[in-house]
Amino acid sequence: MRRWNGWGDESVAFALNEDALAFLARRIGAGTPVVDAAFGQACARIGASRLPAHRLIDRGLIDTSPEVRLRNALGQSLPDWLRLRYGVIETAPDGVAYPESAQDVRELFDYARACGASVIAQGGGTSVAGHLTAPHGVQPVLAVNMTRFRQLHFLDTESQLATFGAGVFGPDLEAQLRARGYTLGHFPQSFEYSTLGGWIATRSSGQQSLRYGRIEQLFRGGSVETPAGTLDIPTFPASAAGTDLREMVLGSEGRLGILTEATVRVTPLPQYEAFHAVFFPDWTEAETAVRLVVQAGLSLSMLRLSNALETTTMLALAGHKKMISLLEGYLSLRGCKDGKCMLMVGVSGHKSLARAALREALALTLPHGGVHVGRYMGEKWKQNRFRNVYLRNAAWEHGYAIDTVETAVDWPRVEAMMHAVEAAAVGALALHGERVHTYTHLSHLYAQGASVYTTFVYRLAGDYASDLARWRALKRAASLAIVESGGTISHQHGVGSDHAPYLAAEKGELGISAMRALFAHFDPTQMMNPGKLLP
Amino acid sequence: MRRWNGWGDESVAFALNEDALAFLARRIGAGTPVVDAAFGQACARIGASRLPAHRLIDRGLIDTSPEVRLRNALGQSLPDWLRLRYGVIETAPDGVAYPESAQDVRELFDYARACGASVIAQGGGTSVAGHLTAPHGVQPVLAVNMTRFRQLHFLDTESQLATFGAGVFGPDLEAQLRARGYTLGHFPQSFEYSTLGGWIATRSSGQQSLRYGRIEQLFRGGSVETPAGTLDIPTFPASAAGTDLREMVLGSEGRLGILTEATVRVTPLPQYEAFHAVFFPDWTEAETAVRLVVQAGLSLSMLRLSNALETTTMLALAGHKKMISLLEGYLSLRGCKDGKCMLMVGVSGHKSLARAALREALALTLPHGGVHVGRYMGEKWKQNRFRNVYLRNAAWEHGYAIDTVETAVDWPRVEAMMHAVEAAAVGALALHGERVHTYTHLSHLYAQGASVYTTFVYRLAGDYASDLARWRALKRAASLAIVESGGTISHQHGVGSDHAPYLAAEKGELGISAMRALFAHFDPTQMMNPGKLLP
């Protein structure tokens, strides 16, 4: 069964080994485990449902039990975790609907409108930016869980388009396509539990977007139920006919309606796929090399560059002490010592073309001290690509919090951004007398610049208020560093509640008010996910 | 000097040879040349300016002379041509402003607001969809000519971004970049006279978009003056932060404001560029082959597939009778006879990679009867890529009208679309007792489908009313065929006035009203290009 207060399935554990714990203890001190609230305790914090009686409840379309409401109350952000782990459930939806058709969604809108309820659409509840929290207030809140919309309705192999119910989970979507020889190729770290509709509503990006594109490129059309009516978006290979309606839906975060069906671009399963690792002596060489590689426009599927501390951390956490020690010895001989940075290079597709692209990429790294160490580290990374996120559970159990922030900037600002975000976090928790272990990677590379993805590990205080204060201090400092360094407040996680205060820095007041006007057109009474996205 | 009633510079002529004229006479009958109205006659049709006196006029920022108003009154659509050639100037702007700064634009908005004038922004006036026509009515109309915004303000070679004044013409933009070793790579057929701002406002696509991307991909940020204020859009390599403001500007066709500055993605000038021709025995084989080539994701810069009649037409117009005859003999031996279709394949970039991609593409055409005939035809096409549009002048002088329509559809609908559009045009003019010479090419290819670009050649009646009636019948029939066959009303020309009646077929009433609400937010008094884009 899925964990109610952590990541993933209860049966899956990804332990921190002794060396990793010793490493963390050296970096930031030993953690003190916290006793989590029990599920029953947390349920008891949830008040009676304020939803008025209705045939939709009688029909079983809406579940008002505290258990289901709790399981759909929050996402996976750190403050969400704090609420769940400490059992401080301040708000929860008054009911959770499980529609199975667009007609069901329209009836839910009618019901919500009639009883003055807010509507929060959700897929797999993997938001790390507070998209799902029910607002405080006297109005009832209806969560609409879309995960029964999971079928592949149509696969057009000639146009390479697949139409799915928008609530389909990543693995289910890929399984349905794989059986027919196709893939979407969208693999965010949340892949196991996130949904197609969620990816579109939050402008998600997958780990192999270099080959497959971001969800913006994959989303080709669909159907959206909005309070003002149904918005049907046909598929065209391209169009110059005015405003692209897809772009109204992308990143709308449940503010204008609920996507029920989405048509996405798919491709035949790649004949060949491989992930290789390359080490560089330092960040400057590494960043220059990856910029040249991505600007060469080679057919790669992934580039992911870790800074020195992330490289050290990954090697410390890898286990296989002996092998890592041999690797480090070899790298040292080749000039990659303390400040070394690890690059993952992925290729997919036609075998000979993929290999040619890899060869070309490796050749471009050579003048910058790149040391190709083959597939071992890359394949390890691939094996663990969706398991790493379970580390948050393991860290918590040892008294550590793990959080991340991410942004994207043009190349001249990348390195400064990395330093600014890391320093801001360290400075913020220093005021709380705590150290932060921070490390960064460039998760997605573009000719124009890169995403900058920073992880923070720090100790839990052991009580809700203190831990919330620590998180707030760190999040605020890191977010301010992002906007002050000219980055977008999110490259791949979306805005939700946590990033909303920083949105005006990039959109301007006029941009913000235009978004507001656009959403209000589809949702005149503003019942859709109020308070999210727009500050 | 630029022609006031036709395409391009007066000094450039591109004659139709005897064979081409004989070919046309056989297809649709001999044309009867029309006597064009003189510039002075047309000017005399323009009434006195209704703009009230103002210091902006005194300062010379606004020109109210009939000559300048006439030269900025219309675009290059066939009805625009009919008005100019026959001297039937029904409406013209009351003045043409030539701002040089964002401040000038803001002052022009203040002035327009104060005197109740409509504002029509224009770049090079190359619209073929009626974007620029002043509306009938009692309100004065102010044209804002943006071509003094032409400078390269900043080139960031690290991020491969260039910031230009938005009114820069294609050749000027490329010249400024070329001097620094870069290219934008955006080459619509209108390249000589169209502007960066116009490309963005109409979602333009260039001939090598397969390599460089459509303008949507190239446009990375900028500054827009709107009646509600200035919208500044920063550049990010990618963002998940809510609605993408660039998408509000793209395809807005002057309805929300005027782009003053745009930052675009540029790339180093390609080391190598080549265009090759491949012939196929028939359309079915050709279409299948190009679909497989484009879906293979090779690094090509262009794919352009002509149907049989376009292939015949291009060979007839090529001159070099002897050489073409030898070519056709060779092709016939290789199985490409009457129904043969010509494909242009372009490659650009790193020489060895470009050649490898070309080899791979050619290999994919072989099982479909593809006959590679080398670079000659391709290089000829390249030489004439911006000259072909001058053929419209030459045809007119012999009593023929040339018009085009274009759309894009997913692969399963491509062939049916081509036949439907051609048949609709033929049927429409049959009712006028005229034949139409129609031919089609797929101008832009995507994994998902293709643009379908159809040309019509037919005889002029010799008077304005009859020729307008012929055009209306043809345009309406072709446009209805497009929407009834599931295509977008424009892949690359935009909507303007001529396509506006067909827009709701793809956007739906809700989509149309959402666009209206969005534009109204930036332009509350709806003074910006009223009546265009939205029906």
TrEMBL record, chains A, B:
Keywords for the protein's UniProt record, in alphabetical order: FAD, Flavoprotein
UniProt xrefs under SUPFAM superfamilies:
FAD-binding/transporter-associated domain-like, FAD-linked oxidases, C-terminal domain
Domain FAD-binding PCMH-type: from-to ranges: 89-269
Q: Does the keyword Flavoprotein apply?
A: yes
Q: Which InterPro entries match?
A: Alkyl-DHAP_Synthase, FAD-bd_oxidored_4_C, FAD-bd_PCMH, FAD-bd_PCMH-like_sf, FAD-bd_PCMH_sub1, FAD-bd_PCMH_sub2, FAD-linked_Oxase-like_C, Oxid_FAD_bind_N
Family assignment from sequence similarity: Belongs to the FAD-binding oxidoreductase/transferase type 4 family.
Q: What is this protein called?
A: FAD-binding oxidoreductase
The source organism is: Duganella aceris
